[in-house]
Amino acid sequence: MTSQPEPGPRLTDPVHLHPRPPFPEQEQDHPGSTEAMDPRPDHGEDSYRGHGLLLDRRALVTGGDSGIGRAVCLAFAREGADVVFTHLPEEAAEAEETARLVREAGRTAVSVACDIRDEEQCTALVGRTVDALGGIDLLVNNAAYQMSQPDGIEAITTEQFDRVMKTNLYGMFWLTKAALAHMPRGGSVVNTTSVQGYQPSPHLLDYAMTKSAIISFTQGLAQMLAERGIRVNAVAPGPVWTPLIPATMPDPTEFGEQSPLGRPAQPAELAPVFVFLASAHASCITGEIVNATGGTPLP
Is the Cα dihedral 124, 129, 131, 132 positive or negative? Predict the structure, then answer.
Protein backbone atom coordinates (compact mmCIF):
# COMPACT_ATOMS: atom_id res chain seq x y z
CA MET A 1 0.00 0.00 0.00
CA THR A 2 1.45 3.37 -1.05
CA SER A 3 1.99 5.78 1.82
CA GLN A 4 0.35 9.17 1.56
CA PRO A 5 2.41 12.37 1.78
CA GLU A 6 2.16 14.49 4.87
CA PRO A 7 -0.45 17.24 4.53
CA GLY A 8 0.91 20.64 3.59
CA PRO A 9 0.36 23.85 5.50
CA ARG A 10 -3.20 25.02 5.81
CA LEU A 11 -4.37 27.71 3.45
CA THR A 12 -4.53 31.17 4.96
CA ASP A 13 -7.19 33.76 4.23
CA PRO A 14 -5.28 36.97 3.32
CA VAL A 15 -8.26 39.12 4.22
CA HIS A 16 -8.29 38.01 7.86
CA LEU A 17 -4.66 36.92 8.31
CA HIS A 18 -3.72 40.14 10.14
CA PRO A 19 -5.61 42.86 12.05
CA ARG A 20 -8.07 44.98 10.13
CA PRO A 21 -9.16 48.56 10.79
CA PRO A 22 -10.59 50.30 12.64
CA PHE A 23 -7.56 50.50 14.93
CA PRO A 24 -7.47 52.24 18.32
CA GLU A 25 -6.83 55.97 18.28
CA GLN A 26 -3.10 56.60 18.62
CA GLU A 27 -0.67 59.38 17.89
CA GLN A 28 3.10 59.47 18.26
CA ASP A 29 5.91 61.91 17.68
CA HIS A 30 8.22 61.13 14.77
CA PRO A 31 9.91 58.67 14.30
CA GLY A 32 7.45 56.62 16.34
CA SER A 33 7.77 53.51 18.50
CA THR A 34 6.95 49.92 17.63
CA GLU A 35 6.18 49.04 21.23
CA ALA A 36 3.61 51.84 21.52
CA MET A 37 1.61 50.70 18.48
CA ASP A 38 -1.75 48.96 18.82
CA PRO A 39 -1.80 46.42 17.29
CA ARG A 40 1.93 45.74 17.40
CA PRO A 41 3.45 45.20 13.93
CA ASP A 42 4.45 41.68 12.90
CA HIS A 43 8.01 41.46 11.52
CA GLY A 44 8.03 37.69 11.17
CA GLU A 45 9.47 37.04 14.63
CA ASP A 46 7.37 33.89 15.07
CA SER A 47 6.64 33.00 11.45
CA TYR A 48 9.60 33.51 9.12
CA ARG A 49 11.51 30.32 8.32
CA GLY A 50 14.75 30.56 6.37
CA HIS A 51 15.93 28.19 3.64
CA GLY A 52 19.53 29.29 3.14
CA LEU A 53 18.68 31.51 0.18
CA LEU A 54 21.21 34.20 1.19
CA LEU A 55 23.84 32.06 2.90
CA ASP A 56 26.94 34.11 3.81
CA ARG A 57 25.77 37.14 1.87
CA ARG A 58 26.81 40.55 3.20
CA ALA A 59 23.91 43.00 3.38
CA LEU A 60 23.53 46.71 4.06
CA VAL A 61 19.97 47.79 4.89
CA THR A 62 18.93 51.38 5.57
CA GLY A 63 16.13 52.09 8.01
CA GLY A 64 16.47 48.69 9.64
CA ASP A 65 15.36 49.67 13.13
CA SER A 66 11.63 49.09 12.60
CA GLY A 67 8.90 48.39 10.07
CA ILE A 68 9.80 46.93 6.70
CA GLY A 69 13.52 47.40 7.41
CA ARG A 70 13.40 45.32 10.58
CA ALA A 71 11.45 42.57 8.81
CA VAL A 72 14.01 42.54 5.98
CA CYS A 73 16.95 42.33 8.42
CA LEU A 74 15.27 39.44 10.25
CA ALA A 75 14.47 37.56 7.04
CA PHE A 76 17.93 38.12 5.54
CA ALA A 77 19.55 36.81 8.72
CA ARG A 78 17.35 33.72 8.83
CA GLU A 79 18.30 33.13 5.20
CA GLY A 80 21.97 33.19 6.22
CA ALA A 81 23.09 36.79 5.62
CA ASP A 82 25.14 39.05 7.86
CA VAL A 83 23.58 42.49 8.19
CA VAL A 84 24.67 46.07 8.75
CA PHE A 85 21.68 48.38 9.14
CA THR A 86 21.09 52.05 9.82
CA HIS A 87 18.90 53.95 12.24
CA LEU A 88 18.54 57.50 13.49
CA PRO A 89 20.21 58.30 16.84
CA GLU A 90 16.81 58.56 18.53
CA GLU A 91 15.94 55.06 17.34
CA ALA A 92 18.73 53.28 19.25
CA ALA A 93 16.36 51.18 21.37
CA GLU A 94 14.43 50.04 18.30
CA ALA A 95 17.70 49.23 16.54
CA GLU A 96 18.87 47.05 19.42
CA GLU A 97 15.78 44.88 19.02
CA THR A 98 16.54 44.40 15.32
CA ALA A 99 20.15 43.51 16.16
CA ARG A 100 18.94 40.98 18.73
CA LEU A 101 16.75 39.26 16.15
CA VAL A 102 19.63 39.04 13.66
CA ARG A 103 22.02 37.63 16.28
CA GLU A 104 19.44 35.10 17.44
CA ALA A 105 19.53 33.80 13.87
CA GLY A 106 23.25 33.19 14.31
CA ARG A 107 24.41 36.01 12.06
CA THR A 108 26.45 39.19 12.49
CA ALA A 109 24.46 42.34 13.23
CA VAL A 110 25.94 45.84 13.16
CA SER A 111 23.63 48.78 13.84
CA VAL A 112 24.87 52.21 12.77
CA ALA A 113 23.37 55.55 13.76
CA CYS A 114 23.47 57.40 10.47
CA ASP A 115 21.75 60.37 8.86
CA ILE A 116 21.77 59.47 5.18
CA ARG A 117 21.00 63.08 4.26
CA ASP A 118 24.75 63.66 4.66
CA GLU A 119 27.05 62.40 1.90
CA GLU A 120 30.03 61.96 4.21
CA GLN A 121 27.99 59.78 6.56
CA CYS A 122 26.85 57.67 3.61
CA THR A 123 30.42 57.16 2.45
CA ALA A 124 31.53 56.30 5.98
CA LEU A 125 28.65 53.85 6.33
CA VAL A 126 29.76 51.92 3.27
CA GLY A 127 33.32 51.84 4.60
CA ARG A 128 32.15 50.57 7.96
CA THR A 129 30.11 47.84 6.26
CA VAL A 130 33.11 46.68 4.26
CA ASP A 131 35.27 46.68 7.39
CA ALA A 132 32.69 44.70 9.38
CA LEU A 133 31.59 42.20 6.74
CA GLY A 134 34.43 42.16 4.22
CA GLY A 135 32.32 43.55 1.38
CA ILE A 136 28.77 44.24 0.23
CA ASP A 137 26.70 41.77 -1.76
CA LEU A 138 23.24 43.19 -1.08
CA LEU A 139 22.11 46.80 -0.68
CA VAL A 140 18.56 47.60 0.43
CA ASN A 141 17.69 51.29 0.15
CA ASN A 142 14.70 51.35 2.46
CA ALA A 143 15.00 54.41 4.74
CA ALA A 144 12.44 57.12 4.04
CA TYR A 145 10.76 60.16 5.55
CA GLN A 146 7.20 61.36 5.10
CA MET A 147 4.91 63.85 6.82
CA SER A 148 1.26 64.25 5.91
CA GLN A 149 0.20 67.79 4.98
CA PRO A 150 -3.57 67.76 4.38
CA ASP A 151 -3.66 71.58 4.11
CA GLY A 152 -2.05 71.59 0.68
CA ILE A 153 1.25 72.51 -0.95
CA GLU A 154 1.37 75.77 1.00
CA ALA A 155 1.83 73.75 4.19
CA ILE A 156 4.94 71.96 2.87
CA THR A 157 7.85 73.99 4.16
CA THR A 158 11.21 74.13 2.43
CA GLU A 159 12.65 72.40 5.49
CA GLN A 160 10.24 69.47 5.11
CA PHE A 161 10.72 69.31 1.35
CA ASP A 162 14.48 69.24 1.75
CA ARG A 163 14.29 66.50 4.39
CA VAL A 164 12.06 64.31 2.24
CA MET A 165 14.20 64.73 -0.87
CA LYS A 166 17.52 64.16 0.86
CA THR A 167 16.37 61.17 2.91
CA ASN A 168 14.50 59.41 0.14
CA LEU A 169 16.62 60.28 -2.90
CA TYR A 170 20.02 61.78 -2.06
CA GLY A 171 20.80 59.09 0.50
CA MET A 172 19.84 56.31 -1.90
CA PHE A 173 21.97 57.85 -4.66
CA TRP A 174 25.05 58.39 -2.46
CA LEU A 175 24.89 54.96 -0.85
CA THR A 176 24.40 53.12 -4.12
CA LYS A 177 27.24 55.00 -5.77
CA ALA A 178 29.61 54.21 -2.89
CA ALA A 179 28.50 50.59 -2.45
CA LEU A 180 28.98 49.66 -6.09
CA ALA A 181 32.75 50.00 -5.72
CA HIS A 182 32.61 46.98 -3.38
CA MET A 183 29.82 44.95 -4.95
CA PRO A 184 30.80 41.82 -6.92
CA ARG A 185 29.11 40.31 -9.93
CA GLY A 186 25.95 38.66 -8.71
CA GLY A 187 25.29 41.49 -6.27
CA SER A 188 21.85 42.98 -5.90
CA VAL A 189 20.28 46.34 -5.09
CA VAL A 190 16.68 46.44 -3.85
CA ASN A 191 14.96 49.79 -3.39
CA THR A 192 11.74 50.56 -1.56
CA THR A 193 9.32 52.64 -3.61
CA SER A 194 5.55 52.80 -2.99
CA VAL A 195 2.06 52.73 -4.41
CA GLN A 196 2.43 56.49 -3.95
CA GLY A 197 4.87 56.49 -6.86
CA TYR A 198 1.99 55.61 -9.18
CA GLN A 199 -1.10 56.88 -7.33
CA PRO A 200 -0.04 59.92 -5.28
CA SER A 201 -2.15 61.00 -2.34
CA PRO A 202 -2.40 64.81 -2.26
CA HIS A 203 -1.47 65.00 1.43
CA LEU A 204 1.79 63.13 0.70
CA LEU A 205 2.76 65.16 -2.36
CA ASP A 206 6.50 65.52 -1.69
CA TYR A 207 6.86 61.92 -0.51
CA ALA A 208 5.03 60.63 -3.60
CA MET A 209 7.37 62.64 -5.83
CA THR A 210 10.36 60.80 -4.39
CA LYS A 211 8.73 57.40 -4.81
CA SER A 212 8.16 58.09 -8.50
CA ALA A 213 11.83 59.07 -8.83
CA ILE A 214 12.89 55.80 -7.16
CA ILE A 215 11.04 53.89 -9.88
CA SER A 216 12.99 55.72 -12.60
CA PHE A 217 16.25 55.33 -10.70
CA THR A 218 15.68 51.58 -10.36
CA GLN A 219 14.84 51.01 -14.00
CA GLY A 220 17.63 53.21 -15.33
CA LEU A 221 20.32 51.86 -13.00
CA ALA A 222 19.32 48.28 -13.80
CA GLN A 223 20.16 48.88 -17.45
CA MET A 224 23.38 50.65 -16.54
CA LEU A 225 24.63 47.80 -14.32
CA ALA A 226 23.41 44.79 -16.31
CA GLU A 227 26.75 44.24 -18.04
CA ARG A 228 28.44 44.32 -14.63
CA GLY A 229 26.25 41.45 -13.44
CA ILE A 230 24.51 43.49 -10.73
CA ARG A 231 20.73 43.42 -10.56
CA VAL A 232 18.58 46.37 -9.44
CA ASN A 233 14.92 46.00 -8.50
CA ALA A 234 12.37 47.66 -6.25
CA VAL A 235 9.36 46.79 -4.11
CA ALA A 236 6.27 49.01 -4.21
CA PRO A 237 4.25 48.45 -1.03
CA GLY A 238 0.76 49.73 -0.46
CA PRO A 239 -0.25 50.66 3.09
CA VAL A 240 1.98 48.94 5.66
CA TRP A 241 1.50 49.05 9.45
CA THR A 242 4.74 50.64 10.73
CA PRO A 243 5.63 53.34 13.31
CA LEU A 244 5.63 55.95 10.54
CA ILE A 245 1.84 55.71 10.39
CA PRO A 246 0.87 56.96 13.87
CA ALA A 247 3.89 59.30 13.76
CA THR A 248 3.08 61.03 10.46
CA MET A 249 -0.61 60.51 9.68
CA PRO A 250 -3.39 62.58 11.30
CA ASP A 251 -5.76 59.63 11.90
CA PRO A 252 -4.47 56.05 11.56
CA THR A 253 -7.67 54.40 12.81
CA GLU A 254 -8.85 53.54 9.29
CA PHE A 255 -5.41 53.06 7.79
CA GLY A 256 -5.32 50.48 4.99
CA GLU A 257 -9.05 49.99 4.63
CA GLN A 258 -8.89 51.37 1.06
CA SER A 259 -6.92 48.38 -0.22
CA PRO A 260 -8.94 45.57 -1.81
CA LEU A 261 -7.91 43.27 1.07
CA GLY A 262 -9.37 45.86 3.43
CA ARG A 263 -6.31 46.10 5.70
CA PRO A 264 -2.70 47.26 5.74
CA ALA A 265 0.10 44.79 5.16
CA GLN A 266 2.33 43.78 8.03
CA PRO A 267 6.10 44.20 7.56
CA ALA A 268 6.48 40.40 7.67
CA GLU A 269 4.44 40.15 4.47
CA LEU A 270 6.88 42.39 2.58
CA ALA A 271 10.17 40.78 3.66
CA PRO A 272 9.86 37.66 1.46
CA VAL A 273 9.67 39.88 -1.63
CA PHE A 274 13.00 41.48 -0.73
CA VAL A 275 14.49 38.04 -0.07
CA PHE A 276 13.36 36.78 -3.46
CA LEU A 277 14.76 39.78 -5.34
CA ALA A 278 18.07 39.51 -3.49
CA SER A 279 18.39 35.77 -4.08
CA ALA A 280 19.60 33.68 -7.02
CA HIS A 281 15.98 32.68 -7.66
CA ALA A 282 15.59 36.12 -9.27
CA SER A 283 18.75 35.80 -11.39
CA CYS A 284 17.05 36.99 -14.59
CA ILE A 285 14.99 39.71 -12.94
CA THR A 286 16.35 43.25 -13.05
CA GLY A 287 14.71 46.62 -13.55
CA GLU A 288 11.44 45.32 -12.13
CA ILE A 289 9.06 46.93 -9.66
CA VAL A 290 7.27 44.27 -7.62
CA ASN A 291 3.92 45.59 -6.44
CA ALA A 292 2.80 44.45 -2.99
CA THR A 293 -0.25 46.66 -2.53
CA GLY A 294 -2.94 44.39 -1.09
CA GLY A 295 -4.68 44.28 -4.45
CA THR A 296 -4.51 47.88 -5.66
CA PRO A 297 -3.71 47.59 -9.40
CA LEU A 298 -0.58 49.37 -10.58
CA PRO A 299 1.27 49.45 -13.93
Answer: positive
CA distances from 221 to 7, 167, 180 (A): 44, 19, 11
pLDDT tops 90 at residue 20: yes
CA distance 293 to 256: 10
User: Over the stretch 129-143, which tens digit does the pLDDT of each residue have?
Assistant: 999 999 999 999 999
- Asked if residues 83 and 107 have their Cβ atoms less than 8 Å apart, the reply is yes
Catalytic site includes residue 207: yes
Q: Is 182 helix (H, G, I), strand (E, B) or coil?
A: helix
Task: Assess contact for 191 and 141: CB atoms under 8 A.
Answer: yes
Q: How far apart are CA 227 and CA 8, in angstroms?
A: 41
- pTM for the model: 0.96
- Condensed to tens digits (0 to 9), the pLDDT of residues 87-103 reads 999 999 999 999 999 99
Task: List the catalytic residue out of 48, 145, 198, 207.
Answer: 207
